[in-house]
Amino acid sequence: MNPKDDPEYDEWCDPDNPRRIKYEGILAASKRIVGQIVRTPLQKAHMSQKLGLELYMKEEFLQITGCFKERGVCNTLSLLSDDQKKYGVAAASTGNHACALAYHSARLGIPSVVYMPVNAPINKVNKAERQGGKIVLHGNTLADTKLFAMTKSKEKKMMYINGFDHPNIIEGQGTIGIEVVEQLPSVDAVLVPCGGGSLLAGIAIAVKHLKPDTEVYGIVTDHTNSMVEALRKNERVFINLEPSIADGLSVNKVGVNTFFNLKGVVDKMVVVREDWVARAIMHIVEEEKVVVEGAGAVGIAAILAGLFPNLKGKKVVAICSGGNIDSTTLSRALERGMAAEGRLVKFKVTVSDRPGGLADLCSMLANIGVTMRDCVPERAWVKGDVFSVQLKVIVETRGWEHTKDLVELIKKHYKEYFFQEMGEKTEKSPGTKRGPCLAPNPMCMQK
Q: What is the CB neighbour count within 10 angstroms for residue 307?
């Protein structure tokens, strides 16, 4: 069988002929997209002192569609032939690439169809539609959606644009690396989210060319670790992924070109737990006053989790790749972040079911500054006398020390109580493990 007859064959992403991405291509892309995308600011984070390093946020969530994907899309559309512009373009995406392609193809008058999984975040589906794109929902996974999209695009002679592996896409994403070095020439390390790998590969190539001694780290979560597994096994492997708060990184199989180009330019892959991503989103909202989606928060999550002790005192850039998080996920992230830091506490306590029983509990909580968020009484399944009621209580505290005061108060005044198992301070809870080292002479291990 001729490989070109395979519905999933893509001449731009051919496993037998991977494309080498060069800095010159990224530099040309940076000039090509001027005026079409936002040159995003590099903002020093307010939480820098607390983290013990100079943290800078590359605010890609300020792009028109709220994500860095516009860079690669702009570059790719600008390079289409006149004939291809008439036939149009197509892509499969969980959301951000879809929004970028819909917006810029509509702006340039190029026909486009974007295929998205049926479980894609509803806010990203709606945003892509608002940008003027034709959206088709198909498949339960991105892999299913991609197969369908490539089959349909070939039938219609539309150019399929792989959102994380097309060479022109990688070059476009790499323009962020040029901007980072221009905005902070003394940068010591860059932390880059990694799904399919286009952002990481492009930035790493640009940064290492301009400032070879700068360390570049790829960050994934424990639910989106396809690149780590591919590098560990030294081949692109298909990974069944769990639902992730960092849905923008949920790629089952990494790109041909990204996998080919990563080695030698990325110092290390780092895996951070999903609960740390929720905490990072909460801290970014509270301290930086901006909203970042899970994929965009993984770099800061890795720092919070204590995975970069070698970067203490250094100038570190975290690529905050996007801000397209739906309100439901944001609400969950904030609450889970608060719970993980001892600021949201759930417990059960048995109190008197006579007048004043609940009032006494509320009064005690108020006296120590604890806010009651929810309270559900349970009478039918309480053991013992009929004059008692078990309360399922959720309260808000100021943190671990305040929570300890709450526990001591409840123990002192009540005989029957139960607190959920609680963690301790962040230093005692490792984020997770690091992936394989990719650098031929890893600087991070020399310090």
A: 24
Cβ 183 vs Cβ 42: under 8 Å: yes
Report how far residue 171's alpha carbon sits from residue 21's, in angstroms, rounded to the nearest whole number: 7
Pair of tokens at residue 346? 């759930």
Dihedral of the CA atoms 13, 201, 440, 267 (nearest 10)?
-140
CA 447 centroid distance within chain: 28
Find out whether 270 and 218 touch, Cβ atoms under 8 Å. Answer: yes
Residues 189, 337: Cα–Cα separation, whole Å: 26
**In this structure, what DSSP letter does residue 67 have?**
B
What tokens appear for 368 in the block?
């120590």
Q: Please give the Cα distance from 440 to 447 (Å, whole number).
A: 16
Identity at 432, one-letter amino acid code: T
Please give the domain boundaries of the chain with CATH numbers for all domains. Answer: 23-30+37-67+167-338+431-439 (3.40.50.1100), 70-160 (3.40.50.1100), 343-422 (3.30.70.260)
The closest of 104, 113, 44 to 71, measured between CA atoms, is 104
Buried b (16+ CB within 10 A) or exposed e, 358-392: beebeebbeeeebeeeeeeeeeeebeeeeebbbbe
Please, what is the end-to-end C-alpha distance for the chain in angstroms?
A: 52
CA distance 97 to 70: 8
Tell me: the pLDDT tens digits for 111-164? 999 998 888 878 788 888 888 888 999 988 778 898 999 999 999 999 999 999
Residue type, 177: G
Structure tokens at 191: 């932390």
Average per-residue pLDDT for the chain: 90
Report the predicted TM-score, pTM, of the whole model to 2 decimal places.
0.88
Cβ pair 66, 95 in contact under 8 A? no
The confidence score (pLDDT) of residue 127 equals 84
- How far is 104 from 76, CA to CA, in rounded Å? 10
Q: Distance (Å, rounded) from C-alpha 86 to C-alpha 373?
A: 57
Q: Which two tokens stand for residue 44?
A: 């020093």
How far from the centroid of its chain's Cα atoms is residue 163's Cα?
16
SS3 label, residue 91: strand
* DSSP class per residue in 112-167: EEEEE-TTS-HHHHHHHHHTT-EEEE--SSHHHHHHHHHHHHHHTTPEE--TTT-H
CA distance 186 to 359: 59
Lowest mean pLDDT segment, chosen from 72-86, 137-151, 248-262, 416-430: 416-430
Sort strands 112-116 and 388-396 into parallel, antiparallel or unpaired.
Answer: unpaired
Strand-pair partners of 137 = 116
Give the residue from 196, 133, 143, 145 showing the smallest Cα distance to 170: 196
